[in-house]
Amino acid sequence: MSLLDFNIIFDVVNFLILMYLLHRFLYKPVLGIIDERREKIQDDLERARRERKKAEEYRSEYEDRLAGAEEEARELIDRAQRRAREQADEIVNEAREEGRREKNRVKEEIRRAQNEARAQLRDEVAGLSLAAAGRFLEEKLSEEDHIELMERVVEELPREGLGDQS
């Protein structure tokens, strides 16, 4: 064998030893690091997907709560407006009822005053009629004198309230 054959064999053996050493001390650890890195990246991506999904759920829940709060606020406003209208209607109805009662009270008071005035007028007219009849009987007047006497009696009647019977 020649030196050349020996060098080739030596180079091949060295190459195989180098490959074994590279594989054992370089490729395996590098491939292990690459695999660990790949797994870490996949875990990070999966965690990011989960976090994104959770964030979307929170956002959806927040939007639902916000919509619910807006609806609740609208309902509260509507209820308050209805309550205010009802109270306003109640106040108006109470005022109308109070006005009606006051009007009836005043009408009753006016009616009583009219009745009292009429009774007083009747009493006065009756008294005056009796006085006129008494004078008539005392004087035994002629018809002309009787008419004249009645005219004087009528003129003597107080003018206030006579004929105001409405």
Provide a short characterization of the protein structure.
With about 170 residues, the protein is mainly α. It has helices spanning about 5-140, 145-155.
Radius of gyration: 62 Å
Number of structural units classed as domains: 1
Chain-averaged pLDDT: 85
Proportion of residues in β-strands: under 5%
Q: What share of the residues lie within helices? A: over 70%
Shape: rod-shaped
Q: What is the tally of beta strands?
A: 0
Distance between the termini: 161 Å
Oligomeric category = single chain
Describe the structure in your own words.
- This protein has helices at residues 3-139, 143-156.
- With 166 residues, the chain is mostly helical.
- The longest helix is centred in the middle third of the chain and has 137 residues, at 3-139.
- The N and C termini lie far apart (161 Å).
- The mean pLDDT is 85.
Relevant terms:
0% strand; mainly alpha
Layout: helices, strands, pairs:
Layout: H1 3-139, H2 143-156
